[in-house]
Amino acid sequence: MPKDPARGSVFRIGFAVLDRQIVADDGEHVGKTDDVEFSWNEGEAPAMTALLTDTAALGPRITGRLGRMWRAVLARLRPFDHDEPVRIPIGDVEAFSPTTRLSTPAPEGSRAAEKWLGDNVVGRIPGARR
Amino acid sequence: MRILLSVTLGILTAIGGFLDIGDLVAAAVIGSRFGMSLAWVLVVGVTGMVLFSEMAARVTAISGRAVFDLVRERLGARAGLANLLASYIITLLTMSAQIGGIALALELASSIHYLLWVPVAVFLVWVVIWRMPFGWMEKTYGLLGLALVVFGVALWRLGPDWGELMSSATRFSPPPDEEWSVWSYYAIALFGATMTPYSVLFFSSSGVEEKWTPRDLVTARVNAFVGFPLGGLLALAIMGCAATWLMPADIEVEDLGQVALPVVAALGKLGLVVVIVGFFAATFGAGLESALAAGYSVAQYFGWPWGKTVVSPAGAPYFHVVILLSLMAGTLFILTGIDPIKVVEYSIVLSAVALPLTYLPIFVVANDRGYMGDRVNSRFTNIVGSFYLVLLLMVSIVAIPLMLYTKAGQ
């Protein structure tokens, strides 16, 4: 298991990674860590390789029919050229807690629907860009 | 000198901003029906509010996190979502009640039917959220809300038998012609009106927006420790007016105009003008706070950018869309012609039901050294805090059965 070097204690992913706020290097909110990705080779222990952030990625964690519906409906809000949840490689993470800080700007494709709404609907109301 | 000024201003704002439509209606309804026999609930409620806000302010100032940010983090995706849904619906209901209240206050001032005022009221709320800087917004409605001090003046002018009021307040039992169950139901309603979750959601999120640091904690604490109890005194004055003037006249409060009657009786037209200003400020301020609280809670759960002033609206589109949709939903709800006073009564009881949902995570985090370092709760705070946790859970469990049993206090 990976160790938290600062404390030398067990690093609990459920506690220190999942559901934490992700902030880009410029302070922009990227989203919450909605899920994590594990990879492993035959015979090796699995390791956390990426954070997934996308409201649709919450679906499997809610479980049941509601979870499936959640995933199906929200996945529709993704842009066509990014049909997977936004993936943030673990190497881009600078610190995990209290907030997950990235050493990079917000990854491409994150908050696509929101940005569209900002440009085309909310941004058109007078006074939106003060 | 500047600190003194800002502290005084903060206290005045806290007093003026403490009351909302729930307090106004609950205090008057209860005063006119039960005299001062439920005054003790105000004391319990205000103490709880001070405790809850102080913890929330400390958590925000030390960790820089707002309530629903922490709810998601501590409760996880699923329980957090359930919590969000419940809190959001209650906040929406409370917000609708405030919108109805603004419209009723405008009706009192203009004699134009309140339903015609509803769209105007909502539009004004939205414009202020959209454009007005934070500090200005809080100060304006807080200071205007001080107009409600007129209830204190009116009570003094009515010249009640103070000994009688006092003995009614210390009786701790319903008047002879009322049942225990109904009396307890109204106790819960008054408690829910005093200790409102949306104002803590707003309080903590506004702390993040204003970038509180541990240094700002002093101001936040003084506001809570001094401002809230003084705000509670205003509710007590409204109750006293109702007990002195409405109860003997056998008037049961069914609309906002009746809440103002004792003031009109004592101070005439001028009193009425001041009361209407106070009603408008209290409901408008609470309308702003609850609409923002709705947006804050959803945006914080999902990790979207949020904020009234730290980002431009175009930079936080989801946050503003949630507020806009919530305001529209509230407008449609009130425009169905449902009695706004009934909406108020149900909203305060249901917010008493939902209180543990936001109280518990804050209480837990306020004890977590990972977030708080050595600024965790003191032993004294924890003793009082645990007492309130039990109380809140009990209230939450009992409220709905009691509502059904008493047919909502009839």
UniProtKB/TrEMBL annotation, chain A:
It comes from the Bacteria. This is Sporulation protein YlmC with PRC-barrel domain. It comes from Nocardiopsis sinuspersici.
From TrEMBL, chain B:
It holds the Pfam family Nramp. Keywords: Membrane, Transmembrane, Transmembrane helix, Transport. One of its GO terms (biological process) is iron ion transmembrane transport. InterPro entries: NRAMP_fam. GO terms for cellular component: plasma membrane. The chain crosses the membrane at residues 37-60, 81-106, 112-129, 141-159, 183-203, 224-247, 259-281, 288-306, 318-336, 343-366, 386-405. One of its GO terms (molecular function) is cadmium ion transmembrane transporter activity. It is a multi-pass membrane protein. It is found in: Membrane. The keyword Chloroplast does not apply. PANTHER family: NATURAL RESISTANCE-ASSOCIATED MACROPHAGE PROTEIN 2, SOLUTE CARRIER PROTEIN FAMILY 11 MEMBER. This is Mn2+/Fe2+ NRAMP family transporter. It comes from Nocardiopsis sinuspersici.
